[in-house]
Design brief:
The chain is mainly alpha-helical. The protein has two domains: about 170 residues, no CATH class; about 160 residues, no CATH class. It has a three-stranded antiparallel sheet, sandwiched between helices. The radius of gyration is 33 Å and the shape is elongated.
């Protein structure tokens, strides 16, 4: 390609891209989808089994191997599989390793997935089909929430329970499984195992959420430190503040103590099972995000109290000897740091203090409402005959 042709081709690409964005040109059709679902893999395996019984597996084995290769490329290593003998049905457990992430010190996050294709086998037994569906739902919840050993333990238990149900249903005479007198006992054992795995999942999910939330708080605190540090450098360069000024030290210590108080507040509640109060099934990303904004909330409460105290809207400053300016600055610094820590530790405490800006505290408002309610109720009772 000549040098003159290269800019012309680049220009034409920009024009085509603009036409696509503005809807003046049709988007190019996507490439052929070569992915393989687990149901397609199960069907290929079943056809291979049938050909093996007739000693003619050459063509079907090639199809199965190619589908298995594409399935592994998408879902990772196959850990466990169970294939039904008479009908195209089965379950599998796969493991895929994600990219290295800085938040885990460049470790790879391993994710397990549970795959099922059982409708062909259970079409004559609604009870077994319902039981398998409950296990599938639990496997989805486990795969989305848990990581590490707890996820592996839970999914292996799910895999064991589903293979036990499929093995019971896998018969040459398919309708006989629904009429088997041992089916009620099997379903009772399966229900008990399902309750046990659910209890394990709930306990592991709460513990996992605590860890993810804590990681989010650390990330949020680091982001807050970067933002505050950048703001300090910009303000210093613009000669708005000076590092040696007492108000500068007080301001940044106030923000830091507010964030520290928020983190410690969450950590003290984490150890109480009934005091956690977080819907951890919203997902790991949402839990991490909620944790990351927690230091910001504490810092903002502390900053709001700092402004209220500086503006003398809240009268909490102790009486300090004004003769010794060094002692005044030191005591004021400790005072602001303590107030900021409690502001971050307890939002309710900060809200009560900030309520003084309007002239009344939260307790006073509650008392007034209570007195008003008492008077109303007493007047209402006295009006009755």
């Amino acid at each position: 390609m000549s040098e003159a042709a290269a800019p012309a081709e680049h220009h034409s690409r920009l024009i085509r891209a603009w036409h696509v964005l503005t809807g003046r040109d049709e988007v190019a059709p996507p490439a052929r989808d070569d992915s393989v679902s687990f149901a397609e893999l199960v069907w290929a395996h079943h056809k291979r089994q049938e050909a093996l019984e007739h000693q003619d597996e050459a063509a079907t084995d090639d199809v199965y191997r190619r589908r298995l290769l594409r399935f592994k490329a998408e879902h990772g290593k196959v850990l466990e599989t169970y294939w039904c003998r008479y009908v195209a049905s089965g379950v599998a457990l796969t493991e895929v390793r994600g990219p290295r992430r800085p938040r885990y010190f460049f470790r790879r996050d391993t994710v397990l997935r549970f795959h099922t294709a059982t409708d062909w086998r259970t079409e004559h037994s609604n009870q077994i089909e319902s039981a398998l569906h409950r296990w599938e739902v639990l496997a989805i919840r486990v795969g989305e929430i848990l990581r590490g050993p707890s996820e592996r333990i839970a999914l292996y238990r799910v895999f064991g329970a589903t293979t036990r149900l499929l093995a019971f249903a896998d018969r040459r005479d398919a309708p006989s499984a629904a009429k088997d007198p041992e089916l009620p006992a099997l379903l009772r054992e399966d229900e008990a195992e399902l309750k046990a795995v659910r209890a394990f999942y709930i306990q592991a999910g709460e513990n996992s959420a605590r860890i993810v939330y804590f990681h989010g708080m650390i990330e949020g605190a680091l982001a807050l430190a970067v933002v505050v540090g950048a703001t300090f450098l910009i303000a210093w360069g613009a000669h708005w503040i000076h590092p040696d000024a007492a108000r500068t030290k007080t301001l940044f210590i106030t923000i830091a103590m507010g964030a520290a108080g928020a983190i410690l507040s969450v950590m003290t509640r984490m150890k109480r099972r009934d005091g956690w109060g977080l819907e951890w099934e919203v997902g790991r990303k949402s839990v991490r995000f909620l944790g990351s904004i927690r230091p910001w909330i504490g810092a903002m409460f502390a900053f709001a109290l700092y402004l209220a105290l500086k503006g003398q809207l809240v009268d909490l400053l102790p009486a300090i000897d004004q003769k010794d300016s060094g002692q005044v600055q030191e005591k004021a610094l400790y005072f602001y740091a303590t107030v900021a820590f409690f502001a971050g530790f307890s939002e309710r405490w900060a809200q009560v203090l900030l309520g003084n800006v309007g002239g009344k505290s939260g307790d006073a408002d509650d008392e007034g409402a209570a007195d008003s309610g008492d008077k109303t109720s007493r007047g209402h009772r006295s009006s009755r005959p």
